[in-house]
Amino acid sequence: MRLDINPQVRPDHVGTVTDMRAFAPDRSFDAIWSSHNIEHLHTFEVPAAFREFHRVLKHDGFALITCPDLDAIARLIADGQMHSVVYTSPAGPITPMDMLYGHSASIAAGNIYMAHNTGYTPERLGRVALEAGFVEVRIAKGRFGDLWALALMQDARPDELTRMFRNTDQLDLLQ
User: Fold this and answer.
1) Alpha helices for the chain (secondary structure H)
2) pTM (two decimals)
3) What is the pLDDT of residues 23-33, one digit of tens each?
4) pLDDT tens-digit profile of 89-132?
5) Would you call 59 helix, strand, or coil by DSSP?
6) Which uninterrupted H or E stretch holds 56?
7) From 3.40.50.11270, 3.40.50.300, 3.40.50.150, 3.30.70.270, which CATH number describes the 25-68+111-170 domain?
8) Mean pLDDT, to the nearest integer, of 38-59?
């Protein structure tokens, strides 16, 4: 099931992660894959979104979350690389400015949903997940200025998740 706030990308459900009650009952999902969406929330919306992640997951579920890493972005900017291409995504080249404020070319083309409204360090990402009720949060830094979190529900079994993540860069979240 795919959720997006932008109806133009034709998700299964149009809406926000801050309130998924219209289509997601309590404890109805095994896992959540949140890829580069939490940075689009406004800062005041973050706690509600993480509480929703927690609410919809089964007791043995988990959320795998990735977003830009403000620590890595700040280092790139401090090193004078604000406009250097860090990597190329399907949307095009990505610079530290894009990572900080949202993909400039997409925003310029009218996709206002691509603007970033908040940011995360490893400490903040872990803290907001724990405050939302997750019992454990494992954080890892990615290779392209990205940050990863594995937020575990009370009965989640990290040893059983190892098989799922075996051939991915996220295996280190389980070790």
Assistant:
1) 46-56, 70-78, 96-101, 104-108, 122-131, 158-165
2) 0.93
3) 999 999 999 99
4) 998 999 999 999 999 999 999 999 999 999 999 999 999 999 99
5) strand
6) helix 46-56
7) 3.40.50.150
8) 98
